[in-house]
Specification:
It is a multi-pass membrane protein. By secondary structure, the chain is an all-alpha fold. It has eleven helices and two strands. It has a single domain, classed as ABC transporter involved in vitamin B12 uptake, BtuC. The chain has a two-stranded antiparallel ribbon.
C-alpha cells in the first residue's frame, strides 16, 4: 500500500509535466526537447524565491507559471512559428522543431549552469510526516499532489467547458478542419504551446519541494514526459494522466523492491512494452 500511494503522489507531479508536452505536441505539433529544461529552470526559480525571499513554492506558482507562459509564447511566436509557416508537411515540421528545441535545450542548460552551477540542489519545505491509511508520507509530497490535481482540474475545465478550450481540442484533432470552421489555428497553437510550458513549470515548482535537482538533469524529465505522452496516446489528456500515474507507481515499486538505480531502466522497459503491444497508446485508436 505504501508503494502504491507513494507512486501515485509522484505520478501526480509527473502528470503536469506530461500534460505540458501533450499540449505542445498534440496541439501545436511541436516536439519540445527543452521541456525538461523548463522544468529544471522552474525548480531553480522556486528554490531562489524560497531561499532569498522566503516565498513559499505554492505562492511562487503564481509568479513562475505566468512567466513561463509568456516566455513559451514568445519562443513559439518568434522562433517556432516561422518553422510552422515554412513546413510543407507534418514530418518536416517535426524534424525542424526537434532540431530547434534541441538547440534551446543546450542554451537553457548553459544559462542554468552559468547562473546556478552544476551542483545538486534541494531545500526543506513542509518536511513533516502526514498519515494516509496508517502509513506516513512527506507532507510536501501530499501538498504537491493536491496542487497538481487542482491545476489539472482547472486545465480540464478550460479544455472541456470553455469555447476556446473546445477550439484548442479541435486543432489537436485536425488543424485543417478547424481552420475551415473559423478557428484561428495559429493563435490556438501559440496558446497551447505557452500553456504547456506553464504546466511544465508548475510541475517543476512542485517537484522541487521534495526532489533533488541540478542544471543537467532536464533531459531525463524530457524523456519521461515523452514516454508518458506516447504511453497515454499523443494529444490525449486522460491518457497522459493515467500513464503518469502508472509510471510513478512503477518507478516507486522498482526503487523500493529492487534497486533505486534501476528506476530509469524500468521506465524504458515499460515504454518498450507499450510500443510492442499498444503502440497507439492507452486511449489511442489503432490506425487503419
Amino acid at each position: 500500500m505504501e508503494t502504491l500511494i507513494t507512486g501515485i503522489l509522484l505520478g501526480g507531479t509527473y502528470a503536469l509535466i506530461a500534460l505540458g508536452l501533450t499540449l505542445q505536441y498534440g496541439v501545436a505539433r511541436i516536439m519540445n526537447l527543452a521541456t525538461g529544461e523548463t522544468l529544471v529552470a522552474a525548480c531553480f526559480i522556486a528554490f531562489w524565491l524560497f531561499a532569498s525571499y522566503q516565498v513559499s513554492p505554492l505562492w511562487g506558482l503564481f509568479l513562475i507559471a505566468p512567466a513561463a507562459f509568456v516566455i513559451n509564447w514568445a519562443i513559439y511566436t518568434w522562433l517556432l512559428r516561422p518553422l510552422v509557416d515554412r513546413a510543407k508537411t507534418a514530418g518536416m515540421l517535426e524534424v525542424d522543431s526537434i532540431l530547434a528545441t534541441f538547440g534551446l535545450l543546450f542554451l537553457f542548460q548553459g544559462l542554468m549552469l552559468r547562473s546556478f552551477g552544476g551542483a545538486y540542489t534541494s531545500y526543506t519545505f513542509l518536511a513533516e510526516r502526514f498519515e494516509i491509511f496508517g502509513g506516513y508520507y512527506g507532507l510536501n509530497r501530499v501538498v504537491a499532489f493536491v496542487a497538481a490535481c487542482l491545476i489539472a482540474g482547472a486545465l480540464y475545465l478550460f479544455l472541456y467547458r470553455t469555447r476556446y478550450g473546445t477550439a484548442v481540442r479541435a486543432v489537436a484533432v485536425n488543424p485543417n478542419s478547424a481552420n475551415l470552421v473559423g478557428i484561428d489555428v495559429a493563435s490556438a497553437a501559440a496558446l497551447a504551446f505557452a500553456l504547456g510550458g506553464a504546466l511544465t513549470a508548475c510541475g517543476g515548482t512542485l517537484l522541487s519541494t521534495y526532489y533533488t535537482f541540478n542544471a543537467s538533469m532536464g533531459v531525463v524529465f524530457t524523456m519521461k514526459a515523452l514516454i508518458i505522452v506516447i504511453m497515454g496516446g499523443v494529444g490525449d489528456v486522460r491518457g497522459a494522466v493515467l500513464a503518469a500515474l502508472i509510471l510513478g507507481i512503477a518507478e516507486t515499486a522498482v526503487a523500493r523492491l529492487v534497486d533505486p538505480g534501476l528506476t530509469l531502466a524500468a521506465t524504458y522497459a515499460l515504454f518498450t512494452l507499450v510500443l510492442l503491444f499498444r503502440p497507439q497508446g492507452i486511449f489511442g485508436r489503432q490506425q487503419t
